[in-house]
């Protein structure tokens, strides 16, 4: 009998300890929302600390990439804030019958408007911050310079993304030329010199040749698929499917050949009033750091700061994960 009494007392102590521990844990959200708009069924997964009343909406790159597959790197942020992972139309785990004619900046911006509106309906007291990467930065500039959309947002974190097709390709070629000279690659130097980038020829210049040389010269040697833990997470803990991921790009021929070449928001950045933080991997050849430095110069009417990651290329959240998340956390807080 004494043994049984001791056992019950021990169990009671454990239950009290567990109960006390639970009281210290921040309430967390795990909700899946859906936005159906113009043929696209787009999921938005919301995870994280509901007490924070802060939401970071991740605008993924691509176009045609995925959001939740990068939760592997951002998950730690969910202890301090909510993170909303949105798969854009014809991207990640989104579905529906989407007319390829809707794959335009205006439409992506309109989709973003309704995603933000949906989040505000679900979390009326929360502030929303955009965390945009690569193509997501183009989407962010389109969204923030349209109507009064920036009034819905408390801040922008822009990661290695462009504001102007011309200035982007100009700096990619400059980056590749510098590397060709450093590496004594005469063929690369010859072909790059034969393909100058000017504001007049952006509609016709051979961007693919420039882009290929940039990659060959080490513009972004980091591969997600070298990380076995990431691969396991991608396969078993992400709603995105590899089949969808590698077929989405076929829908974007018009974007690559026409739409993106017309992208120019430089003159409108003076209208941005919300705080901006620019995150840049300084080794990046895909969107060189000079693009980020020009972006900062154009943001003349808001508070803007820059965090440069010296050991990173196009995805600093992959190569310097802790430093990146700390920078996000400090901006949002």
Automatic annotation (TrEMBL):
Domain Serine aminopeptidase S33: 52-317
GO biological process: proteolysis
Keywords per UniProt: Hydrolase
Domain of life per record: Bacteria
Pfam families, A to Z: Hydrolase_4
Gene Ontology CC, one term: membrane
Any one GO molecular function term: peptidase activity
PANTHER family: HYDROLASE, PUTATIVE (AFU_ORTHOLOGUE AFUA_2G14860)-RELATED, MONOACYLGLYCEROL LIPASE
Protein name: Alpha/beta hydrolase
Organism ancestry: Bacteria, Pseudomonadati, Bacteroidota, Cytophagia, Cytophagales
């Amino acid at each position: 009998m004494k043994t049984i009494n001791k056992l019950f007392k021990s169990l009671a102590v454990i239950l009290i300890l567990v109960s006390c521990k639970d009281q210290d844990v921040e309430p967390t959200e795990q909700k899946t929302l859906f936005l159906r708009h113009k043929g696209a069924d787009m999921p938005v997964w919301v995870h994280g600390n509901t007490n924070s009343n802060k939401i970071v909406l991740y605008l993924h790159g691509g176009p045609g990439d995925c959001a939740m597959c990068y939760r592997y790197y951002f998950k730690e942020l969910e202890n301090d804030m909510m993170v909303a992972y949105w798969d854009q139309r014809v991207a990640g785990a989104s579905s529906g019958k989407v007319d390829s004619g809707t794959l335009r900046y205006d439409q992506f911006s309109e989709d973003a408007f309704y995603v933000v509106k949906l989040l505000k309906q679900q979390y009326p007291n929360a502030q929303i911050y955009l965390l945009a990467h690569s193509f997501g930065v183009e989407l962010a500039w389109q969204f923030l310079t349209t109507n009064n959309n920036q009034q819905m947002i408390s801040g922008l974190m822009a990661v290695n993304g462009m504001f102007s097709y011309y200035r982007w390709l100009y700096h990619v070629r400059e980056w590749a030329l510098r590397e060709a000279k450093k590496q004594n690659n005469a063929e690369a130097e010859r072909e790059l010199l034969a393909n100058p980038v000017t504001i007049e020829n952006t509609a016709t210049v051979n961007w693919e040749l420039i882009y290929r040389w940039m990659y060959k010269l080490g513009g972004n040697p980091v591969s997600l698929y070298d990380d076995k833990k990431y691969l396991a997470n991608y396969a078993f803990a992400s709603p995105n499917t590899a089949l969808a991921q590698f077929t989405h790009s076929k829908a974007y021929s018009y974007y690559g050949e026409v739409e993106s070449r017309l992208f120019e928001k430089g003159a409108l950045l003076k209208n941005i009033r919300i705080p901006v933080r620019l995150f840049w991997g300084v080794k990046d050849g895909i969107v060189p750091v000079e693009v980020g430095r020009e972006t900062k110069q154009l943001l003349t009417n808001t508070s803007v700061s820059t965090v440069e990651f010296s050991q990173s290329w196009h995805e600093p959240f992959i190569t310097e994960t802790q430093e990146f998340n700390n920078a996000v956390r400090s901006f949002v807080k």
